[in-house]
Amino acid sequence: MNTERIRRIIRTMQLLQSGRPVDVDGLAEEFGVSRRTVYRDLDLLELAGIPCKFDKKANSYRLHHSAVLPPVLLTLEEGLALMLLTRTAMSDQMLPDHKSAVAAAVKVESSLPAAVREHCGEILKGVDVRWWPMSDAGDLKDVLPLLQRCIIEHRCLHMTYDSFKDGERIEVTLRPYHLAFIRRGWYVIGYAERFGEVRTFKVERVERIRQDDRRFTPDRGFSLEDYFGNAWQMIRGDRRYRVRVRFSPKVAGNVEEVLWHKTQATERLDDDSLLFEVEVDGIEEISWWVLGYGDQAMVLDPPELRTLVIERARRMLEGYGVVPPEAISG
User: How far apart (Å, rounded) are the C-alpha atoms in residues 131 and 91?
Assistant: First the structure.
């Protein structure tokens, strides 16, 4: 949903709450939209549980008394933070039940005092939040509730999964422990009986899923913090490495201003380059990150990461039909 429609719906809610008669032609003229668009906005309010009743005698819409929410006592700063949160949570890619998220946001904003709404609404006209590209969660509106129910009720589930790691579709009986949205998509983490260990599965790659009749005893000691350890993102290796990378002055500021990992430390050198240090479990993921900076990043330690980056750079050149010089070595 775009920002303009959000503002229009909130304004419609304000007009309805004011008690004055509201008709479709008047709304269309005020917002500069078609009658059809106004009807769609009114349908969305209905979906949000805010019933707008048409009064035939007055030939206008009125807000049903049950939909009037009590005002919430918030400061302007709190109202602004809340409105920013509700609006940025409306990504139709992140949330599988996008319509419910929009409905909830409309309810929250409409319950705020008019002065807070109007002041914060003006500020938010100049504020935008853009997420990283992510998987489309639109098809997960039935899968995620099932996973949530199995986690709460400690029920096993059986799924057919398109496994990139195994290079094939696999059948898995899972004891689900946790759901998590990580960077670009939804993941379920649990004990996979097929492998005899806890594994991570991307929910978008689940092709078929059904609840099992069996229940399991949850592992009370499980935590995401321990499970991911010091992984660069979410793929934990078998060994911990102390990584040191030198970034050129051109990208030093860009790297330095971001908290990439909980263990990172940075130091500006005399030539304004940046020494970046971090301790990670495994080097696969961080190698791709380093390669993303191309010739602006140089791995100093460990030797294993240097070798991995060099080999991948070599294969990149070969893919373009360029024979790497023999001088390129670990």
Answer: 8
Q: Give the separation between CA 87 and CA 92, rounded to whole angstroms.
A: 11
Could you report the per-residue pLDDT of 198-207, keeping only the tens digit for each?
999 999 999 9
The correct CATH number of 240-319 out of 2.40.30, 1.20.120, 1.20.58, 3.30.70 is 3.30.70
Write down the mean pLDDT value for the chain: 84
Q: Decide which of 282 and 137 is more confident.
A: 282
The yes-or-no verdict on residue 64 having pLDDT over 80 is: no
- Tokens 């206008």 appear where? 60
Is pLDDT of 72 > 60? no
| Token pair for 19 | 């008690």
Q: Which residues of 82-96 are buried (b: 16+ CB within 10 A; e: fewer)?
A: bbeebbeebeeebbb
- Write down the pLDDT at residue 230: 94
Q: What per-residue string of b and e applies to 140-164 under the rule 16 or more CB within 10 Å gives b?
A: beebbebbeebbeeebbbebebeee
β-pairing, 297-301 vs 240-247, is antiparallel
Write the DSSP string, 137-201.
GGGGTTHHHHHHHHHHHTEEEEEEEEETTTTEEEEEEEEEEEEEEETTEEEEEEEETTTTEEEEE
137-228 CATH pick, 1.20.1250.20, 1.10.10.10, 2.60.120.10, 2.30.30.520 = 2.30.30.520
Encode burial over 48-68: b for 16+ CB neighbours within 10 A, e otherwise. Answer: bebebeeeeeeebbbbeeebe
